[in-house]
Amino acid sequence: MSTGKTIDYYFAPQSPWTYLGHSRFEAIAAAAGATVRVRPIDMGSVFPVSGGLPLGKRAPQRQAYRLVDLARYSKHLGLPLNVKPKFFPVASDDAARVIIAVDMHDGTEAAMRMCAAVFQAVWVQERNIGDPKVLDSLVVECGLSPKRGEQSQSQAVQERYEAYTQEAIDIQVFGAPSYVIDGEIFWGQDRLDFVERALRP
Predict the structure, then answer these.
(1) Nearest alpha carbon to residue 81 among 129, 28, 17
(2) Is the Cβ–Cβ distance between 101 and 157 less than 8 Å?
(3) Cα–Cα distance for residue pair 142/162, rounded to 1 Å
(4) In the predicted model, is pLDDT for residue 3 greater than 70?
(5) For residue 4, what pLDDT is reported?
(6) What sections of the sequence does the record tag as coiled-coil (predicted)?
(7) Which residues are catalytic, by number?
(8) Using 50, 70 and 90 to split pLDDT, how confident is the model at 70?
(9) 135: which strand partners?
(10) 25: closest CA among 181, 182, 201, 183?
(11) Sign, Cα dihedral of 162, 196, 175, 190
(12) Mean pLDDT across the chain, nearest whole number?
């Protein structure tokens, strides 16, 4: 049964929490018949506005607890995850642009598939999503046109990436993932129960 609701899905491609929530989020949205709008954003632009800190600048006890919590959720959800992957921190702007290009040319379902591939590349497969050749491989593995990598460098894609980031700042999104329904922000994959309730008719 469709609720007719729309969920704006704000995330950073290198976010482990987005990876841990992605498949559940996709299932919840599908079960509710909700429309997902895929919104990769640049957290490097969001943090200075929101008071957030990049991982390397956080207090040692926060960094240590993050590793404990990631391992805890990985086990709880039955999802594989390397808490210290080979390529992390990693520049994720190119990955964000590829996801946007896929969304523009192939639609939401393909973009969500591309998201999953990018998240798994970082947190499961230990591949470098900062490398354009890796992104090209992921596009092909998702059954999509190899042109997407080239198209991701277009002005139209860059403008959309900047617009999504500014949109996130404007509505006061401060972390990834954030799911926004009717203007209400649900931050973090541990809020998916509330997302599910918000989608009920």
Answers:
(1) 17
(2) yes
(3) 25
(4) no
(5) 85
(6) none
(7) 15
(8) very high
(9) none
(10) 181
(11) negative
(12) 96
